[in-house]
Amino acid sequence: xxxxxxxxSVVSKYRLATGPESPAYxxxxxxxxxxxxxxxxxxxxxxxxxxxxxxxxxxxSTDVDLFISVDPDTPGTLRDIYENLDAWLxxxxxxxxxxxxxxxxxxxxxxxxxxxxxxxxxxxxxHSLYRRKAQTWTQTNIxxxxxxxxxSGRIDEIKxxxxxxxxxxxxxxxFYLELTVLxxxxxxxxxxPATNFHVVLEYLRDKFPGARVVDPANSSNIISDDLIxxxxxxxxxxxxxTLGKSLEKIIW
Length: 252
Known about the structure:
Poly(a)-polymerase, middle domain, alpha+beta, two-stranded antiparallel ribbon, globular, Beta Polymerase, domain 2
């Protein structure tokens, strides 16, 4: 078995179930009526976002993101919308937990993140969402995020890096990781996943701590600010410890 074949076989082993019978769809099936009741006439859409929508999810990262788009005329501030949804979920018996831009809860073995956002006015898919940690708001575009990653041609390398992250128990937010892999592999051939994965690890060791990563949907949203220096150093040090090992001892 070649290194490329081995990497693809490991990625395949961690494949997530998709489709109507998958845990993600079952979670959405239970939660969507509750969300619709909360949003009432102001609901525009509930859609899968994050790794599940991009095709970069791996078993062991059991997060499912549901993006909740509400009308521009939804009353209250973005903070009000966020906190009202959290309170609604608690009233319905869910042990919800406020996070940064999402509200987390458990559904069976899944960690589900609900992301409430108010659509901006006009012919746009841009949305405004509340950033709890900074007590402010940011603009984002989930469709741009999905297409940027899904159409990148780097899915195997992204999944391999997520598997490595999970095996090393690193705090490395998925979208930050995905964009970092794209930066590391800029200009590299697309049909050499094992070689590319090694390039990613070298990038994490050498350049990642100082690299600036920007939201492709909003240049003022700096994704690399999601981790502090010590958290970035932990990722860099883990990649340093990894390099030099055989691929079978890096991901399995």
